Amino acid sequence: MKRKMMTLLAAATMMTTASAQQTERIDRHQILTLYGNAEKTDSLYNFWNTYVQVHPKDEVAWRNLFEVSEKKVFRWVSTTKDWKGGEDYRKQLNVVGRMEKAIPGTYTFYYSAYEGSYLPEEVEKEAKQYNMTTFYMHHDAYADSAIAALPADALAGDYERWIQHLIPKCDTVRMDQLLKRCYESGQFPEETLQYHFNELQGMETGGVYCGAHEGDIIGKLILQRVLGVHQDKILYDENASMDPEYVKAVFGHIGIAFDKAWYWEGYEDQMEKQRTIMRYIFDHSKRPVYLSAHNMQGYVLGYGLPDELKARLYNEGLTIRYSTKPYDNMAVKRRNIEQRYRLEYLRMPFHPKMKDTQLFSFSANAYAMNYIRLLHDQLPYYKKHNRERYQWLHGIFTDIIDRLEKENFDVDEFKGYLK
Predict the structure, then answer these.
(1) Span of the secretion signal (predicted)?
(2) Of 100, 104, 188, 386, which is least packed with CB atoms within 10 Å of its CB?
């Protein structure tokens, strides 16, 4: 009883503090910690559920409640393995339905309705069965309304969500507007753009870059369509491959034919379809084709591709190139390190540390770690053949490690690479 009273007092204190100040969005990383913490999830849900009853017009509070409720649904499905039951559980919580009555016509409602795959009650009652056409019609309408209502202070993750929605639709007009707004907002980290730039910088002119997901693509779209660099490179987002019109458009840019009958052949799952499309690009593209090397573990060591394709993937530094003929890819990697990659920015950032609000892209620290993981194998060569280059690259890696260590990262792996 005493513990329950203390919990209620703490909740009351939190609510008083939150109402006295401007409500703040729950940090994305805090949301991620909820996956394995049922008690914390329930506590946050109860807090925000009570809060919106007292402050029914607070959009930020509703957004927080929605984000936490989705983790409750995820936990329910993970525990029961019942996806249909998960939808019923989401309806039972009815966060978006309540939101529709409290803050209709707002960005927060449109965002949550889209993310929560919400159908209005009257639509469900009228529909005799769950109709995918009805679903997509409402789903797209929520996205359109959210994009139109996107606030000026939107976080990077919100920009990324709607850019993700527009990529498979090839809606370059609205996508360019969002890319420009995202860049000018300062929400997209400079270090992330630097990494994307260097990936493209190491590719040959006119190369095709196959990204596993939007985190590999959005930064490069900003570079191409906002900053006007590396516009010769063709970007393919594997995650958008379920839309035939998108695949057809990419094939057109690459210069290969699109066969609609081939596209609709039966596949066991989405992953098999993605592999089939990638193989088709490998086999038919006259342009050099690249993958991101930070996905190497999946592509080469794990589930990603069949063995005969893995044998044709050559690491060139930050990217992997597909080739049917063996070549000295280590020489290309050294060329990239010496002539193409811009690495000096890794020594010391000259701006305050940005809060990571991205949805798909890796953090600046994660990309910094990639440089060490992907390029350290050239240190022995430089130590033997080019002492000055060895000291330069070793110095950059040391600066990265020192910075990570100050932020309490475990750096033993990276120190081991420098021995």
Answers:
(1) 1-20
(2) 104
More confident residue, 10 or 402: 402
Residue 51 Cα distances to 27, 69, 100, angstroms: 18, 14, 16
Tell me the C-alpha distance between 370 and 8, whole Å: 45
Q: Report the candidate in 199, 178, 153 with the shortest Cα–Cα distance to residue 320.
A: 199
Whether 206 and 277 share a structural domain: yes
Last residue of a domain, one of 323, 338, 353: 338
**pLDDT, position 2:** 43
Amino acid 208: pLDDT: 99
Q: Report the number of distinct structural domains present in the chain.
A: 3
Which amino acid, 180?
Answer: K
- CA-angle at 23, arms to 159 and 115, nearest 5°: 40
The answer to whether residues 201 and 230 touch, using CB atoms and an 8 Å cutoff, is yes
Query: pLDDT tens across 291-339, in order?
Result: 999 877 666 555 556 788 888 999 999 999 999 999 999 999 999 999 9
Same structural domain, 216 and 356: no
Which amino acid is residue 328, in one-letter code? D
Residue 197 and residue 333 in one domain? yes
Whether residue 242 is found in the same domain as residue 367: no
Helix 364-375 with 190-201: angle, nearest 10 deg: 30
Query: CA dihedral in degrees (46, 48, 50, 55; nearest 10)?
Result: 180
Is 380 found in the same domain as 289?
A: no
pLDDT at residue 127, as a whole number: 58
